[in-house]
Structure formats: structure tokens, C-alpha cells
User: Fold these one by one.
Assistant:
Number 1:
Amino acid sequence: VECDATVRARVELVKGRKLDRPIIEVDDTVQVLGFGGTVELATEDAARGAVEWFVGRTGMDRREAYMLLSIVGELRIGTSPRPVMAARLIIPRPVIDAAAGG
């Protein structure tokens, strides 16, 4: 669904922190974006990016993070015009906090 809207967004620059993809942090979730020439490639990119981000944030083993995110992560397809498709893997913040020991 497309519509006109007036939106207020806040963007934070964290100096000294390099990101290889957009990451959206809201109150109850973290959303890791992925891109590719097909929906399949975009979803794979989002999943890989989410695992890398989760491992970096929590210190969890990569294999365990992959298994956990395959259960609790919510994958959504974006509506990008071709040739680039977008997807995002949404991680509930309570899962992140629990895995990080918080």
C-alpha cells in the first residue's frame, strides 16, 4: 500500500562504528536489512547480516545465533523496484537482551 504521509524520523550517527547495511532499531525490535537482485538473494543477505549483527552484539556462537534467529526472527520482503530487491529480518529486543545477558 502506498500513500502520502508526513513522517518524522530521527537518525543517529554513532561515530567509530562501521555498518555494512542499514539497521533499524525501534523500541521492541531490531531490523536488519538485506538486498539482492532477487527476493531469494535479498532474504539470504538479510539473514546473514542479522546473524553477523547478533553475534557481534551478544557474543553468541555463530551457529547457535543462526539457529536461534531461524526460530524467533521474522523475515519480511520489501517492495523495492527491480533490479534491487530488499528484505529485513526482525529480531525481538527481549531475545537480544536475554542472549546478551541483560
Number 2:
Amino acid sequence: RVKGIIQKNLNNFNLSEEFFENSIRLNEDFNNEINTAESTAELGKLYESKDEDAKSKELLTKARKFYKKIDAKTKLVELEN
């Protein structure tokens, strides 16, 4: 996930997307819900910055559901801002 954020900040959007997708896949494999949620949110924000609104909305909604499931209220607030 960190590599995805770095690449996003460097405007390497394709590489950033790849890192976020890999992070999501790995964290799902290990049932790490908080990291899955965070990576999903970051990928949603990436799509938002690329004006890919449908993908962004889908992923941000998915991240919200993860955060609600694990009762991560602070993360929910961060996501809304």
C-alpha cells in the first residue's frame, strides 16, 4: 500500500494502481480487514483523482463497509474528509 501511495504522489498512476491491487489481494488472502479496507480506500481515491467516478464510488463504498464491519470509526471519518 505504501508503494502505491508513493507512486500516486509521483503521478505514476498505473504503477500505483498495480500496487494497490496487489495489496488488496494479499491482505484478502491473509484476512487482514483493516489493511484491505485501507488499500481499497486508497485505490478508490486514486480513481477519484483520475476522474473515474464509477470505480471510485464502488471502491470507496466497499472500504466504508469494511470499516463499519470492524468498527473503525476514525477511519470512516477520515474517509469522509
Number 3:
Amino acid sequence: MSDGKASTSSEVDFVVVGSGLGGLSAGALLAKYGYDVTVCESHYHPGGCAHGFEIKDKNSDDIFKFDAGPSLWAGMSEPSTNPLRQVMDAVGAQVEWKKYDGWGVYFPDGYFRFNVGPSDQAGGFEDVIRKFGGPGGSIQEWKKLQEIIKPLILACTTFPPMALRADLGVLKTLSKYLPTFLSFGPAAATINGPFSAVMKQAGIREGTFLWRWLDYLSFALSGLLADGTICAAVSYTLGDLHRKGSLLDYPVGGSGAVCEALVQAMERNGGKLLLKTPVQEILIKDGRAAGVITKGGDTILARKGVISNVPVWSLPKLLPDEYSTFSFGGLWQENHNTRGLKEDLKKTPQTESFMHLHLGTPDLDIHYTVINEWESGIDAPGNMIVISIPTVLDPSLAPPGKHVVHAYTAGNEPYDLFEGMDRNSDKYKQLKKERAEVLYKAVEKVIPDLRDRIQVELVGSPLTHERYLRRPQGTYGPAWRAGKNLFPGPGLAKVPGLLCCGDSVFPGIGVPAVAASGLTAANSMVSVGEHVELFLRGGW
């Protein structure tokens, strides 16, 4: 028990542990299916890594609204194959979106603006290649790459994400699409391999501008370079960025608005979100996941199942060391030891963490990427920085005439520099200041007099990531390498009635991927008939 309150017990159909975009997608869909759902979230904001927050200036009444995580959105402002958009359409979650057409890139050879849309249009990516490509990274190799990935893009978009589920019922929900998918033959077979294999097939040489650019895109997607990122993810992204009419999106109100829209949709359909409610244990009864016990001592029983949206390294703490199943009318008991499973889950490889810089300052692009140097690799500590200035599109996030800036090292900050440090110590504060300097220098490429303009400043370290986002060691996510390992499916815990979602399971890291994992888990918890009915109702 905590806070001196007597523990209580309640019962619902499903409990979802964690309200990241995967958990919210699962919870909102299950509520749409008509089930009684409760989502338990340890933080005081929903959304996990995608939550938003407000900071008030200590010296004035000015309030600045920041994104904690994702800043680049695509395929959201209109119906698309983006899994999150399909979830929001299915549950009736409404968000206003602003559109824009590219971002600025500072790198060792200069500066260019990356414009989305066909690469051969005026100002398109082919102009960038002509200027910076050099030998072995020319228009010819780029065009060959586009030809190679064309069937891959079609294969990736053959199945509407809403048709996905993780049991044999998928044969029915995907049946009408399978002939088309299989018609792609060898192309379909390469989808789960590393994207670098396709780059080599196109004749792109390592060390060239084009190779490094594709390494950058891969790293931004997965936290791994092209030799570790699955072909499907990069092919889909390239297809989306370079299609005719392509635009990028930003949610009015910030990323938190997306989370709130999913929460509201879930609550309209009878679901419930419990904030500041960390889960202590996932209950297993008669061999099935049967609910949760919160750290406050409350028991929430689940008649039909539990979905976990916690990182794979945190899941073992929620599972008992052993549980029993009964068969033959309860005459036979079989004991299951989960210690081996727990050790396997803990061994999941991790990407590195982040340094974050949130600033409130007094006309710019909404996004920039800064790459400091090529030689040590895109994934070297502090080498690639992403800068987001969302007030360019949504002025409501800051007082009139001012901007919010979110800069971060993208999954390349070592946790071990901070491990074990006291967050209140002068040593920690000094290290944060030192490690944030690369962020300041990056933003100064865009706003040269930045330090004279700062009104509000927040510096986040891997320890901040670990504490507030519940990410073990502040990690970006699992580092499963394409061609060597596959992300596990939602049943990775191997406990009946317990499915997982989020970036720890297939299809992996990123906003579309975690939404896909959430909808897959939710669809797998309901009957094929219910799934097909909702699917047909959505017009997919």
C-alpha cells in the first residue's frame, strides 16, 4: 500500500500497461471494439516518449510548450498507410495538422535544404546530389536505387496496417492482399534484410555522399546505420518522402495533442486512463495473464488479457519467477519457470541514449539536421543533432514573437558517462553543461545569437530519459540488426493472455512502427470476426 490508502480491486476486460503511442493505440482500438479497457501510466502525462509538457518562465508569466520526443511526422494530415493515421481514423481521434515541405541540413561540406517530393523536380534531391554527390554517388546510382526499391515500396504498402494481427487469423484478414504481395517475388523476400545490401546493389559506394545520406536516414529511423536497418523501413520512408505531392506534417498543439486525441477517443468509447499509476506486477492466474497490481496496492483484474507497453528490459520486473497452468479439469498442474525468459529479455541489445536541449527564445524552417563530421560515422557520440522549432508552424506553443527550440543528439549519447551520478550533484550539472555544448553549437548554426535570446532552458541527459520516459539506461530502443535478428512478435513474454507492444516488438522503433505494434496487439486480442467488421467499416 502507498499513501496510506486501502487497496482496492476492480475488474475490466483488458489492462494496458503504459501509455506510449503503442499502448494508447491498443487501448483506443480495444475500446472501439466495445471492450472495457484501463490503461495504467506511471507518469503524470500520457504519451510516453511522445508526451508534451509546459514550462513557465520563472521571471515572467510566459509559458512554453515542448515536445518530449518525436518531432518529424509524415502521412498524418490525410488518410494514408501510416499505421498511426489508420488507428486514429478507426477510433475517431481528431488532430489539426500543419504541412511543410522539407528541412535544412548542415553538414561538413556545406548546407542544403532537403525538399520532399519527386527528386527530379526543381530544387529536388537530384540537385543536391549534383552539388555534393561526387564520384560513386551520382544521379545514376540514385536512379538505380529508386528502380530497385520501387517493388519494395509497393510490397511494403500492399497490406493496410489495420489488417495486421499476430495469430493464424491473419490468413483471413490479409487473404485478399497475399496474391499481390507474393507477386513481388524476390523483392518481397528482401524486405527484412539490411538496406545496405540494396545500396550496394545500386552501385553506391561507401564513403560517398549518397551512402552517408542513406546512413543518416537509416540512423534517424532506427538508431542503427543502413547495415543494421531493415530494408522495409528505409524503402517505405524514401517512397513517402519522394512521392508526388509529398508533404511533412506537424500536429497543432505539439506531439501531446496526438496523445490527448487518442486518450479522448478511448474515453468516448468507455476506456479509462489512470495517470500516476505505476504497475508493480502482472498477475498470472491459471496460466494466463489475469490483471495487474499497482504500486499503490490496487488490483485491476483483466477478464480477457493484458497488453504491456513497457520496454523489454523492464518487463521481467513485472513477471513472477514462476507460474502454474492446469489441464485435464485441474487434475494436472504444470509449473513454468520464467527465470530463463527474463534473462533472455534482459540481454536484448540497446541503442545509445540522448542529450536534449529545450529552449524558449524571442524566419526559420521548422526542422534542421546538423552532422558535424563524416569520418567517425553518423552514429558517433554527439555527431548528429536534430533541431525542431515547431513554433514556425504553430505559434500557440510560445508567447507572441517567441519560439520554442528542441535540439537533441539522436540516439548517440553514451549512458555510461552518466551512470550512477547523483542528479543533484555539481558534478552531474557540470557534465550536463559540457555534453550539451554540442547542441548549443548546432543551434547556433541556425540562430547565431542564440545564447543572448534564451528565456527558458532545460537540459536533459540519458538519466532524464531513464527517469521520466522509463527507458532503461535512457535507450532509444532495441538494437536488433537487420539480416541477423528480427524484432520479436507481441507474444515475446510467452504467457497466454499477455501481448506486448511498443518499440521492443515488431516492427520496431519509430512512431508508425509503435502504432503498428499497438494495433497488432489489440487486433490479436479480439476475434477475427470483430477484426474484419471494424476493418471493413473503415473502408480499408
